[in-house]
């Protein structure tokens, strides 16, 4: 695919895990359809069943992941060659995978990249990273896209939010790498999405703020349900 179709645009992540109320490939396909009809340029989705259901009704390029846990490793986003094969069989344009420095199941990241490149040269690879060091390493390994997906979700970055201090992390990351940076993770307002792009992000992925109604509801409830505290 031509990556430039995503440049400066919104990618909507349509995910609901088994413990979430909207867990259903049918619902995810309708979420993706809604995103497409509202002007999104791409979709990010998890699992073969969701990706195939979305493919049937949406023609946007897709970033595919498979979240799967393996014993002895905290890596759960496309951890092994099995998930890469499964995603490739679904025809996704981009495969995203954990590119943090955590211990991995099956094989080291460098080998996994070599595997994906050799077998599926047409598929672009996105690195889900948490730190500048990991992003530089991912670039060195040959990833096509650097994602900020894991920032705030590793021991090293725990408690951090991509938007902290007017996107200080992004301001550090973008000039440090030459590959396109897709901002992903906790972008929960249109203003933040716009700001990330203005700071040089190639594209923005928004998930929960669009597709997880329990998250959206929580923010409203939090703003409404503590009037005494707010008045005090
Ligand atoms: C850390 C992790 O597992 N992130 C996952 C990656 O695919 C998803 O659960 C997120 O929803 C996605 O990254 C979009 O982020 P947000 O929903 O915050 O806009």
TrEMBL record:
One of its GO terms (cellular component) is cytosol. Its EC number is 5.1.3.9. The keyword Isomerase applies. GO terms for molecular function: N-acylglucosamine-6-phosphate 2-epimerase activity. InterPro entries: Aldolase_TIM (IPR013785), NanE (IPR007260), RibuloseP-bd_barrel (IPR011060). GO terms for biological process: carbohydrate metabolic process; N-acetylmannosamine catabolic process; N-acetylneuraminate catabolic process. Pathway: Amino-sugar metabolism; N-acetylneuraminate degradation; D-fructose 6-phosphate from N-acetylneuraminate: step 3/5. Coiled coil: none annotated. It catalyses: an N-acyl-D-glucosamine 6-phosphate = an N-acyl-D-mannosamine 6-phosphate. It is an enzyme of class 5 (isomerase). The keyword Isomerase applies. Gene3D superfamilies: Aldolase class I. Keywords: Carbohydrate metabolism, Isomerase. HAMAP family: ManNAc6P_epimer (MF_01235). Belongs to the NanE family. Converts N-acetylmannosamine-6-phosphate (ManNAc-6-P) to N-acetylglucosamine-6-phosphate (GlcNAc-6-P). This is Putative N-acetylmannosamine-6-phosphate 2-epimerase. It comes from Schleiferilactobacillus harbinensis DSM 16991.
